UniProtKB/TrEMBL annotation:
The lineage of its organism: Bacteria, Pseudomonadati, Thermodesulfobacteriota, Desulfobacteria, Desulfobacterales. GO terms for biological process: response to zinc ion; transmembrane transport. Pfam families: ABC-3 (PF00950). Belongs to the ABC-3 integral membrane protein family. This is ABC-3 protein. GO terms for cellular component: ATP-binding cassette (ABC) transporter complex.
């Protein structure tokens, strides 16, 4: 396994906070710095594609994926992303073939994964106690192996975004017109759904099942208020997401705060959103 200690040392040098002297805090910071940009970029596209409910359904599939891992004594870090990936691709496949609305299909899958997770947990009451860290998130437990997987996902995600960002934007605006211009809509939608599912699953480790959608949506919503173009929205979302992740981790580690890291990250992002709303009000008034 590659030695990541030089990376942790660089993070500690660039962010000289006392709480980052501990190795597990450095690992958590590296994990968030990798995860936050992916969540931000994906969040912009989720907002443009109107797929917030889709990401919510995938995040709740983590509940069933973890439960399966705990029941069958398999590492939940394997069963959770695999199950989420299957759910994401399943939703996309049914959505493309069915005449029902997207919200209806996602609602059915959402109900199914929640019910399945509860059914699995109900078979073994001891499993319920182990579910708490996945419900609320615990980025402080991230390991070297997890970070290596995050690095691989980050590289794959950035390559996909570099090659297909404009095409995805086109598909989001009008999929029929994109198809008429020889864009393979199905391929891009399936890859997008797969990457979204994996990013959501990793985000569950950071902020928990309850706040995953917020990690995607809040930075993108704030970015839309700040930005005046699609490109600017992308960069604003990155800024909001990364600064929220860094500030959230540092604040949560302070003695005067002592709060859950995931919840603190989302609260900082929501503060960014309130600032963006105030900024948009000022901009509208100045135009008038």
């Amino acid at each position: 396994m590659p030695d990541l200690s030089p990376v942790y040392h660089i993070v500690a040098q660039l962010l000289p906070f006392e709480c980052l002297r501990a190795v597990f805090m450095q690992q958590a910071m590296v994990g968030l710095i990798l995860l936050a940009p992916m969540a931000a970029a994906m969040g912009v596209q989720v907002v443009n594609f109107r797929m917030a409910f889709f990401s919510d359904a995938i995040s709740h599939s983590a509940f069933a994926g973890v439960a399966l891992g705990l029941i069958f004594s398999i590492n939940p870090h394997w069963t959770m992303p695999l199950f989420g990936l299957l759910v994401g691709l399943g939703i996309m496949a049914v959505q493309r073939k069915s005449t029902l609305s997207s919200d209806t299909i996602i609602g059915v899958f959402f109900s199914a994964v929640i019910a399945f997770g509860l059914a699995v947990v109900s078979r073994d009451r001891s499993v319920a106690r182990d579910m708490q860290r996945f419900l609320y998130g615990d980025i402080l437990t991230i390991s070297n192996n997890d970070i290596l997987w995050l690095i691989a996902l980050f590289i794959a995600f950035m390559v996909f975004q570099a090659l297909s960002y404009n095409r995805l934007l086109y598909i989001g605006l009008n999929s029929s017109l994109a198809k008429a211009h020889s864009i393979n809509v199905a391929t891009y939608q399936y890859i997008f759904a797969a990457l979204l599912a994996l990013i959501v699953m990793f985000s569950v480790w950071a902020v928990g099942v309850f706040l995953v959608t917020a990690m995607l949506i809040v930075p993108a919503a704030a970015a839309r208020n700040f930005a005046r173009s699609a490109g600017a929205m992308f960069w604003w979302a990155l800024l909001v997401s990364v600064t929220s992740a860094i500030a959230g981790l540092v604040i949560s580690a302070q003695d005067w705060a002592n709060t859950a890291t995931g919840a603190t990250i989302i609260l900082v992002a929501c503060l960014w959103f309130m600032i963006s709303v105030f900024t948009s009000f000022i901009r509208r008034d100045s135009v008038r």
